[in-house]
From TrEMBL:
Annotated localization: Membrane
Cellular component annotations (GO), alphabetically ordered: vacuolar membrane
Membrane topology: Multi-pass membrane protein
InterPro entries found in the cross-reference section: LC_transporter, PQ-loop_rpt
Primary subcellular site in the record, as a coarse category: membrane
Protein name: PQ loop repeat family protein
Lineage: Eukaryota, Metamonada, Parabasalia, Trichomonadida, Trichomonadidae
Single GO MF annotation: L-cystine transmembrane transporter activity
UniProt keyword annotation of Transmembrane helix present: yes
Transmembrane segments: 66-86, 92-110, 143-163, 175-195
BP GO annotations: L-cystine transport
Keywords: Membrane, Transmembrane, Transmembrane helix
Length: 218
């Protein structure tokens, strides 16, 4: 099999896993009817970064295997914002639905800014990890986040790195995205081990038994 075909397989496999990454978190939120222990600020920051990345995919005419995971993450963030509105009865979160519109306008109307905006996605991945994991550290529990989702994220990131290696991907921004995603998962695993909560699959019943999760969410 030609290397380019292997790279495409890795790319589409990575995209498929990215499609699944946030579904466990969305399911956990719906199952527990709660977003406690799950940071809304982290989701909003990720949405900003991915909105610009999604717009740049079209502006730079990137390949489908790079556009697809960005599209999936884009849709997922829209759903997660809705969950915060639903579980916290907080309509102000709806304003974040305007972020994608702003991103597309900036990318296409001010193309000279793209050399900066193309780093927004990687930067948001780093910055959003602070409130994401702080929410866990504050209540000393990882039961509010989906560890199964982090396992899927880890797998998707490794496949993405393999795709870049085989393709000899010259774009450092794409490399950064996958490496940061790996570290994101590793930190989550570390916290789960520290709180003696490491698991492959998530449990809504354990989530409901944790009194500490009744704290006001971030």
């Amino acid at each position: 099999m030609e290397p380019e075909h292997v790279a495409k397989i890795c790319g589409y496999a990575s995209a498929t896993f990215y499609f699944l990454v946030d579904l466990p978190q969305i399911y956990l939120n719906f199952r527990t009817k709660s977003t406690e222990g799950f940071s809304s600020l982290a989701v909003c920051l990720r949405m900003i970064g991915n909105s610009f990345n999604f717009a740049l995919c079209f502006a730079e005419k990137r390949s489908l295997e790079l556009i697809f995971p960005s599209l999936i993450l884009f849709v997922v963030h829209l759903i997660q914002i809705f969950q915060f509105v639903w579980t916290r009865r907080a309509k102000p979160y709806l304003i974040f639905y305007s972020i994608p519109v702003v991103a597309f306008l900036v990318v296409f109307l001010i193309p000279s800014s793209n050399f900066i905006t193309r780093y927004f996605n990687s930067a948001s991945q780093v910055i959003c990890s602070v409130p994401y994991f702080y929410a866990c550290i504050r209540i000393r529990s990882t039961l509010g986040i989906s560890l199964f989702g982090l396992h899927l994220n880890f797998t998707a990131s490794i496949l993405g790195i393999l795709m870049c290696m085989i393709n000899c991907q010259p774009d450092n921004v794409i490399w950064m995205f996958y490496f940061i995603s790996v570290m994101y998962s590793v930190i989550g695993f570390g916290l789960a081990f520290a709180y003696d909560e490491y698991r492959i699959f998530d449990s809504a019943s354990k989530h409901s038994k944790k009194d500490v999760l009744r704290l006001e969410p971030i």
